[in-house]
Amino acid sequence: MAIRKRSWKTAKGEEKSAWIVDYADASGTRRQKTFTKKKDADQFAATAKVEVRDGVHVADSATVTVKEAGDLWLKSCDGARLERATIDQYRQHLTLHVEPFLGATKLSKITVPAVRAFQEELRENGRSPAMIKRVTVSLGSILSDAQERGLVVRNAVHEMSKRRKGGTKAEKRQKARLRYGVDIPTMEEVRAILATAEGRYRPFIVTAIFTGMRASELRGLSWRDVDLDKGVIHVRQRADAYHAIGMPKSDAGQRTIPLTPMVVNTLREWKLACPKGDLNLVFPNGEGNVEWHQNIIKRGLWPTLVKAGVTISTDKIDKDGKPVLAPKYSGLHALRHWFASWCINSKADGGLELSPKAVQARMGHSSIQVTFDTYGHLFPAADEAQALADAECRLLAASAT
């Protein structure tokens, strides 16, 4: 690996010079890279020498653009048979957020500072913090795929993750804790919902409240996975946004959930009236097929919330001059949050008082960390002062004898 200086005169007679690094890559191909400063050439030569020796060096001319790498990544995702909704989301990240700012950039130019600048551009162009985070994760996946193809050496996104493990202070501040009456229905609200729910969506709502199942798991639930005699539901499949039936989100998503008497009785009655279909679904549409998620929300959940008085006032005024009321909770995940809180609450407060591991199992979380990150603040705090006092009494009593 040699570094040499090249000098020349321009057409206007100006003196110019540059530093050129001559080297052979791992395959023996001759390469050149030009720098305006010798220190930059020295730094590149030192790094390239190690990369060539380790067989991981990729020359700028041998790499591709972020757009090209993104297209290869999407093909990999399609080949891995990911859910259609997931691939569509990845494609949106690439075409709407990554390509407009980084599409023409070579992979070798994607450094940590470049990723930070990309995030700032997204922020300045109106992307939300949550969207920026998701798009950055997708960019990291693009770079990982490119690494496996030998198109790039570094994954700047992963380097950033290691440096900022656990998130920045600002990111932690933005992630607010779930609150009763805001994100989690209160006990009184759930009682009102149960007393008001009626019609074809009542069985769905009752089951959602007392099992904490995800909407996709409920939409894909089959009668063969419901054992009313034993009072359990086996979660073995889910329905995605395009009504395709597949496996749960993770291995932990496959679980068995015990049922309350209300759920058992409600499902027994519903089974007699449930529309029949080839999929043998518990909560199908009128033709026996997978129900649209938005139909459940707009025709089932929202009307029930309004009728139960679980509402908030809006800025709109009706013809009588009164504020128009809207459902207090926008989606079914609020019922899942309530079930988790019910599992955590003490028996004295009407809850189940389950251990964190038991809550993790009921919710189908992939790890106990997910459970603690989401619901850790709901677990009752130990009375450390009383525990210390009791321990002191036991110690002194033992020494007195």
Would you kindly provide a brief summary of this structure?
The protein is an alpha+beta fold and 401 residues long.
How would you characterize this protein structure?
- The protein is α+β, with helices and mostly antiparallel strands.
- Among the domains are: 2-57, no CATH class; 66-174, Orthogonal Bundle (DNA polymerase, domain 1); 187-292, Intergrase catalytic core (hpI Integrase, Chain A, Orthogonal Bundle).
- 49% of the residues lie in helices and 12% in strands.
- The strands form four sheets. A three-stranded antiparallel beta sheet has the order 1-2-3, covered by helices on one side. Strands 4-5-8 form a three-stranded antiparallel beta sheet, with no helix packed on it.
- Helix 2 (66-79) packs across helix 5 (129-148), helix 9 packs across helix 13 (333-344) and helix 13 packs antiparallel against helix 14.
- The mean pLDDT is 90.
Task: Name the structural class.
Answer: alpha+beta
Report helical residue fraction.
Answer: 40-55%
The main sheet comes to: 3 strands, antiparallel
Q: What is the average per-residue confidence, as pLDDT, rounded to a whole number?
A: 90
Query: So what's the CATH class of the domain at 66-174?
Result: Mainly Alpha
Span from first to last CA?
81 Å
Number of helices: 16
Low-confidence stretches: none
CATH architecture of the domain at 66-174: Orthogonal Bundle
What is the N-to-C order of secondary-structure elements (H for helix, E for strand)? Answer: EEEHHHHHHHHHHEEEEEHHEEHHHH
Q: What is the number of strand segments?
A: 10
CATH topology of the domain at 66-174: DNA polymerase, domain 1
- The radius of gyration computed from the alpha-carbon positions, rounded to a whole number of angstroms, is 29 Å
| Biggest β-sheet: strands ordered side by side in the sheet | 1-2-3
Using the alpha-carbon principal axes, give the shape. elongated
Strand content: 5-15%
Looking at this structure, what is the CATH superfamily of the domain at 66-174?
Tyrosine recombinase, N-terminal domain
